């Protein structure tokens, strides 16, 4: 069997196609979650914490009074962008919780499905 025919057989298996669909849908879902965190959750958290914009919270590692992270990056200053890290943690937690709920639902359906007749 040639390498190309082996690869074709591997690529056409159902699990590989399912994985490809999952990756594409996951990418689209990631954009939705990013928007949820950035555009909906973080503004509410900012208001609750006295107007703090977490996406722009940073520590400049070398001099200069920079007011925004973008300003520090344009100046070539190394900065620890801990606010963006907080946003990414929230994004991860939302994705993880969503996947947990999906897997929990699938497991519930598997348990309640009648046994297949042979």
UniProtKB/TrEMBL annotation:
Membrane topology qualifier: Multi-pass membrane protein
Superkingdom, natural source: Bacteria
Pfam families: MscL
Keywords from the named record: Cell inner membrane, Cell membrane, Ion channel, Ion transport, Membrane, Transmembrane, Transmembrane helix, Transport
Cell compartments where the protein resides: Cell inner membrane; Membrane
Membrane-spanning ranges: 85-103
Matches recorded under Gene3D superfamilies: Large-conductance mechanosensitive channel, MscL, domain 1 (1.10.1200.120)
Coiled coil start-end: none
A Gene Ontology term for the protein's cellular component: plasma membrane
Subunit relationships: Homopentamer.
Family: Belongs to the MscL family.
General function of this protein: Channel that opens in response to stretch forces in the membrane lipid bilayer. May participate in the regulation of osmotic pressure changes within the cell.
Name of the protein this chain belongs to: Large-conductance mechanosensitive channel
Provenance organism: Gemmatimonas aurantiaca (strain DSM 14586 / JCM 11422 / NBRC 100505 / T-27)
Gene (name only): mscL
């Amino acid at each position: 069997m040639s390498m190309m025919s082996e690869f074709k057989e591997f690529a056409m298996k159902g699990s590989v196609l399912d994985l490809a669909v999952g990756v594409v849908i996951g990418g689209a879902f990631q954009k939705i979650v990013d928007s949820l965190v950035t555009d909906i959750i973080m503004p509410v958290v900012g208001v609750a914490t006295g107007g703090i914009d977490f996406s722009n919270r940073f520590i400049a590692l070398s001099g200069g009074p920079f007011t925004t992270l973008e300003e520090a990056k344009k100046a070539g200053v190394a900065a620890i962008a801990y606010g963006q890290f907080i946003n990414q943690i929230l994004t991860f937690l939302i994705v993880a919780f969503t996947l947990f709920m999906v897997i929990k639902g699938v497991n519930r359906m598997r348990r309640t499905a009648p046994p297949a007749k042979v």
